[in-house]
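Recap from last week: sequence in, structure out.
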Amino acid sequence: MFNKESPEELKSKLNLETSRINWHDLQVYYARGHVVKVGPELDLLDVAAELAADNTTRFKSWMDAGQVGDVAPDLARHWYDENTELWAVVIAPWVLVQDRSGHVLH
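Predicted structure tokens:
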């Protein structure tokens, strides 16, 4: 899908497709197991680009480090109770989300 683009072109395209969304609006995707949490220390666009490029080695290293993975039930409940606003980007069928509420965006 994205394979013919340079990494810079891909990140630029993904940046245009990134938006804020409330957790309540992601419930269907979460119930299907299609939501991937990205730690705030990572760049959401970098992670999305690596997923789109099917870079399993890089993705596995992030998963092993606990920087990328499933949304734990306790966190999902907290986000639901607060209806937390998250940054999100879709790499079908996955929705990558990142809680940047405690970090300064650049």
